[in-house]
Design goal:
The chain has 162 residues and is of the alpha+beta class. It contains four helices and six strands. The protein has a single domain, classed as Glutaredoxin (3-Layer(aba) Sandwich), CATH 3.40.30. Helix 1 links the parallel strand 3 and strand 4.
Length: 162
Amino acid sequence: MTLPTLDLKTIENQTQPLSQYQGQVLLVVNVASRCGFTNQYKGLQALYEQYKEQGFSVLGFPCNQFGSQEPGDEASIKTFCETSYAVTFPMFAKVDVNGNEADPFFKWLKSSKPGILGTEGIKWNFTKFLVSREGEVLKRFGSNDSPASIATDIESALNQSL
């Protein structure tokens, strides 16, 4: 299954085609500003800076479905990310990742790479999906997987796709 043809809504409320990221290795993450894992923004930004010149992007999707830990609007989320963690990787409008109203991109990610015991539902904030340059979901990482711990997987994806 390859990257779907979808339009995404950026955190600045602009429409952006997902196809803009075709040919890149992607790390797609559902994020939250008031979570115990929020400090992962720092590691995600470090990965982005380290690998972006090699065709890598982190795509952050705020989500308020887990403990209401992302209650703000897009403007406040953007300000928080920029001022608290100097985030420069692409951020998108707040989405649902589970349930009937789940964003189509996350439906695709979850069905492409189910979690433990084949369950598709995302369990918490900062679940990460690694997508190859060819648009294949390679791996799914849980909240406890720190950004630094998946750098080797990112490097492998960057190298296998050359």
